[in-house]
Amino acid sequence: MHSPAIQSRALFAPAGLMAAIIVAASVVACEDTTEPGPPTFVASLNGASEVPAKAVGGTGSATIVKNGATYTYTITYTGMSGPLTMAHIHGPASATANAVVIVPFTTTGAGASGTLTGTFSSTNNPAITNDSLDVLMRTGNAYVNLHTAANVPGEIRGQLSQQP
After folding, report:
1. DSSP H or E run through 120
2. Considering the domain 40-162 in this protein, what is its CATH number?
3. For 5-29, what is each residue's pLDDT tens digit?
4. Is 110 helix (H, G, I), strand (E, B) or coil?
């Protein structure tokens, strides 16, 4: 006949195995299964990023979020030399090169500081599809550029990159 200690150990082993299975199942069930959010592209804008660099006080930030086929942009800026005359996404271009406008933003009524917001659904360049725009923004080969009368080619600029 088995001693009580052996019988206890015999009961304890299956109970321990069962507890381990329950804990493992709980961990798997609690893992984050949240779907990733929409692609978001960001840029920090300043005069030093212009090509050639500008010694200006203006700074800004740009956020572009893609939901389906619609892009929503928010560009906040301050300290410009005057009211905005133009604002765009340019590309394809690295941080050391200039490029053509591929998405214009509306600047009507924009002052020397403020926020531009809006949406777009395509580029204004038939050679650059939305898929190509996504690649350019994700890889840092597109940039946001804000222009003023004092700095017609551009006053502040920032390369876009995909936010993790």
Report:
1. strand 114-120
2. 2.60.40.200
3. 555 555 555 555 455 555 454 544 4
4. coil
